[in-house]
Design brief:
- By secondary structure, this protein is of the alpha/beta class.
- About 45% of the residues lie in helices and about 15% in strands.
- It contains 15 helices and 13 strands.
- It has a 5-stranded parallel beta sheet with strand order 5-4-3-6-7, sandwiched between helices.
- Strand 4 (about 135-140), helix 5 and strand 5 form a beta-alpha-beta unit.
- Bound molecules: nicotinamide-adenine-dinucleotide, L-histidinol (HSO) and zinc ion.
- Nicotinamide-adenine-dinucleotide binds near residues 188, 239 and 334.
Length: about 400
């Protein structure tokens, strides 16, 4: 399917969910995921969650908890760096700004090809740290396993639904009898999921379009080839649509790496022989989801990077460190959207409001406002400034209703 066909296909499914709610959800669960949940429903019960938690081996629990605590610490720190409120006073005018979290969010945890318990943490923790009250997790039936449920419980998620793909996005955006509408949808997914998020944007907020994964690697002549091969394969294994780039200053290194890669991975790889400086320019144009600077002297290069979702610096830092454990969310903009958007973070779930307070002393300002309104022929905009300093009895002295505009 080309992009236009996907768009129509997705909008038909969303329309069906909008008009037929749960009935349509059950139909698509059967069609795309081959499960019949019409009797049991698609909300996961507390008992199912508690039983799953009991079955998780201690070692795995500790692995997930270690990742959770790093990711929570990072996002709590990020929250502490965002000023809650600020204001200033100038010529009697008080102006300020404050942030509030969205009240509810859906988090989409993908799960067609692989199961992603890490994505549960990478989406829920930033929302928690932002102060979102209602976090609703959706994931395809195939992905509803013990590890995913344990991760959700660790993040304090109480509402979990066994539903994925376009229908999950449609149900979150429009609501069904089972699932109450949310204000925002965050999280990565395949091309259908991303198109669905794009289409419901406006009715709900979305984070960014995080689709098939990507990595660009800038490598110097001394990089161990094994590091590059492993890091290319790591992102290629997500999806045949994943894209990988290698930009290297040494022709021999490129051919050494290519010889070590399987044929399938070569189809997903683009290579460029160029200086390290030129490589940064090319990468800024690609705007990859992940950028690895596998070079000895990375400080200068790092300063020139403008467009990348997350940057992994130095030989010792694989993309997998960010995928699982370091702290920042692994939900990052793909397909060039790092040119204008950022990875998921506390900021994703915050809204900004400005507040303005005028006083009688602002006479000159009222006059300016009235004059600007006059220039737009907006009579009542003008009056709303004038009544406050010039003609306070304008409406009170009139007989009858104010004329319709
Ligand atoms: N950028 C990131 O942060 C990030 C993180 C993790 C994963 N990913 C990416 O997320 C993607 C996950 O994709 P996925 O497919 O494995 O899981 P997914 O959850 O996005 O999609 C699976 C669901 O799609 C639906 N579906 C399947 N075929 C369909 C069809 N023909 N029409 C309509 N709906 C259909 C089904 O309901 C299925 O359950 C991968 O590309 C991976 O690289 C990105
Ligand atoms: N690389 C993916 C997109 O950033 C995230 C992920 C999850 N699990 C493994 N990797
Ligand atoms: Zn990954």
């Amino acid at each position: 399917m080309d992009a236009k066909q996907i768009s129509t296909y997705v909008s038909d499914i969303i329309e069906d969910i909008k008009n037929n709610g749960d009935k349509a959800v059950f139909k698509y669960l059967k069609k795309f995921d081959n499960v019949d949940l019409s009797k049991r429903g698609y909300r996961v019960s507390q008992k199912v969650i508690d039983d799953a938690v009991k079955r998780i081996p201690k070692l795995l629990k500790n692995v997930i908890k270690s990742s959770y605590s790093n990711i929570l610490a990072y996002h709590k720190y990020e929250r502490s760096q965002i000023k809650k409120r600020w204001n200033y006073v100038k010529n009697g005018l008080k102006i300020g700004q404050f942030y509030t979290p969205v009240e509810s969010t859906g988090i989409y945890v993908p799960g067609g090809r692989f199961s992603y318990p890490s994505t549960v943490i990478m989406t829920a923790v930033p929302a928690m740290a932002a102060g979102v009250k209602r976090i609703v997790m959706v994931t395809p039936p195939k992905n509803m396993n013990d590890t995913v449920l344990f991760s959700a419980k660790l993040c304090g998620i109480k509402e979990i639904y066994c539903i994925g793909g376009v229908m999950a996005v449609g149900a979150l955006a429009y609501g069904t009898k089972t699932l109450k509408k949310v204000d925002m949808i965050a999280g990565p997914g395949n091309a259908y999921v991303n198109e669905a998020k794009r289409q419901v944007f406006g009715r709900v907020g979305i984070d960014s379009l995080a689709g098939p994964t990507e990595v660009a690697i800038i490598a110097d002549k001394d990089v161990p080839a094994d590091y590059v091969v492993a890091d290319i394969m790591a992102q290629a294994e997500h999806d045949p649509l994943a894209k990988t780039y290698l930009l290297c200053e040494a022709a021999e290194k490129i051919s050494e790496i290519k010889k070590l890669l399987p044929k399938e991975a070569l189809k997903q790889l683009k290579t460029e022989l160029c200086s390290l400086n030129k490589a940064v320019g090319i990468v800024n144009n690609i705007a990859p989801e992940h950028l690895e600077l596998l070079v000895k002297n990375y400080q200068v290069l790092l300063k020139s990077v403008k467009n990348a979702g997350a940057i992994f610096v130095g030989y010792q830092t694989p993309t997998a460190s960010g995928d699982y454990w370091a702290g920042p969310s692994h939900v990052l903009p793909t397909n060039g959207s790092a040119k204008f958007s950022s990875g998921l973070s506390v900021m994703t779930f915050l809204k900004r409001s400005a507040h303005i307070e005028m006083s009688k002393n602002n006479k000159k300002a009222y006059k300016t406002i009235a004059d600007f309104a006059q220039a737009e022929s907006m009579q009542y905009h003008k009056k709303s400034a004038e009544v406050r300093y010039l003609i306070p009895s304008f409406f009170a002295n009139r007989k009858g209703r104010t004329a319709d505009i």
